[in-house]
Amino acid sequence: MAPSALIAGSPLSIAELTAATLDGDLARVSRTAYASTALPDSVGLRASAAREFVPDGYAATWTTAAWIHGALEREPDPHHAHILEGSPAKRHWRGGLVAHSWPLPLIDVAVIAGTPVSTFERTCYDVARESIEDPSSADASLALAGFLALAERRADVLAWLAQGRRLKFTKQVAEILTTR
What we know:
alpha+beta, three-stranded antiparallel beta sheet, single chain, three-stranded mixed beta sheet, 7 helices
């Protein structure tokens, strides 16, 4: 089996996926995706499971990207995606997706398992900024705690913040990363 998630209906029906799950051959990765029980949970597996929710010309961001990067344990509801810089503006009406219309710079995007995702550093910044702007956001707080637990990547995020980007709260985010 390929090291990616199987989306319900492609190539197996929901009934076949459910039967394979009951037999112990497959496990749920997300609300609509399954994978072999022999596959370890990974960034690529979660990215392939999120592919269904990310429209063309968009990238998975915020809590969706935090889940893909492994900072958020459970799949977010709803998923978040930002339009990519240079993509034509278009509206997306889909249950379980918040499609943001301000463009995400291409330099802040990585393609993981065929799914455009905001980079680890950008995602950490985004959830930290969200937790500063809205302290009551439980998902942002959980994702930030997940990023803070990944101490080996903290220097990467601090270097990214020091690049002089024109973003709000970079000093506050850097302070959070260095003091916690």
